[in-house]
Amino acid sequence: MAAGSAAVVGRGAFADRSTQVSAAVDVPDVVVAGTAAGLTVLGGTRRRAFGRAAVAGGQDVYVVTGGSLMRLDPANWVTARSIAVGDGWIPRVVSGDGGSCALGRTPASVRPAARTSSPLLVTTQERQRRYDLGGVVEPDAFTSDGAGLFVLEWMPASAPDHYRVRLLDLPTGVLQPLLTRAKLPVPAGAEEEMRGEGRQAVLSPGREILYTLYTHQPGHQHTRDLIAGRPSHVHAFVHVLHLTERWAYCLDLPRPFGEGPAEGHAIAISPDGRCLAVIDADSGSLAYADTEALTISRVVQLFRVSGAASLLFGPDLLFGVGAEVTVLDTATDKVKGTWPVPSAVRGLGLSPDASRVYAGGDGEIVWLDARSGALRGRAEVPGLTAVHQVR
């Protein structure tokens, strides 16, 4: 491997370096993490476990406690507002500006249970409105103007195993199909149906576009192929959902993407929003996509490795799998270095000033110098499952 700005450290070297950092070091940024018990927020010496009745979005955390929905700023722990909503509601989705929240009666799950109806509660500023939708409907994302809510309509309601993305018009309460990339209504019978295995999503820097990675789509048919009357043959793709213009498009990924384990796939977006990167660790394939043209610009062959993958754009492209973070130079497609971490990576995050990289691990979060990979600190987080956000 060629050495660059990142230090090249061999496997097994972490034990020698870990003694250099005290476990009592404060967390220098605000870190939102998922745990087996729900949402946890860390920052400085403060830590707060919000549990399952909480969701993070934008700069805020929404949590239901004592029948009230509270909007908190985790940077200073100030409550921005509190609204009485009653018991049994679970915050699920927050708008990009943090002003709206959609709540449901059930927690998020890979595949929801069968039910005949889906009550949703949407709060905006001091107002709230309840929607009682037939079948199994799960909130997904708000439109940029806050007038619509993208939802996943699961089918069949008696045994949900696939879904389609639809738009709930909040003023009327009517479910509508999405637009095509040409901003035309999707014809009846041409709405895409997905099974959602290996689903992972990232927002564009401007929070206008949601990119969702899908793998293993047996029998999936793209809207454009249904309209053209031709079959689709795809194992993985990125679903591009424009939150402002309300259209959707599927960016196909070439084989072998989607053929290996879903957990080995990960997606990231560059700070300027112009480039998407998708990794398939099992095959060692890395694809770059142009977000303006919505085309694959190149595919790079890396080393093959098994395990859950994480991907992050920092000063370089960082790829985490197992107890190691690999540093990739996006200009040359070369490996610049490898950084050992205490345990298998469970999500990566970058500090606002791009000087620190956070890596989730087994019951803890560690942070590294973003240039050298040197370990700077670690904090215990029991039951950690993922790093959601760093700010």
What is the highest CATH level, the class? Mainly Beta
Unreliable runs: 1-24, 220-231
The geometry reads as globular
How much helicity do the residues have? under 10%
Query: How do the strands of the widest beta sheet line up side by side?
Result: 3-2-1-32
Calculate the mean pLDDT score and round it: 87
Q: Structural class, please?
A: mainly beta
Number of distinct helices: 2
Rounded to the nearest angstrom, the distance between the terminal CA atoms is 32 Å
- How is the CATH topology named? Methylamine Dehydrogenase, Chain H
Q: Would you report the number of β strands?
A: 32
Largest sheet: 4 strands, antiparallel
Total number of distinct structural domains: 1
Classify the beta-strand content into a percent band.
over 45%
Rounded to an integer, what's the Rg over CA atoms?
21 Å
> What's the CATH architecture name?
7 Propeller
Oligomer designation: single chain
Notes on the structure:
The chain has helices spanning 14-18, 223-228, and strands spanning 27-35, 38-44, 46-51, 54-57, 60-65, 68-73, 78-84, 90-94, 100-104, 117-124, 127-134, 136-142, 148-155, 162-169, 174-176, 200-203, 209-215, 236-242, 248-252, 265-269, 275-280, 285-290, 295-301, 309-313, 317-321, 324-329, 334-340, 348-350, 356-360, 364-369, 375-380, 384-390. It has 391 residues and is mainly beta. The strands form 8 sheets. It has a 4-stranded antiparallel beta sheet, with no helix packed on it.
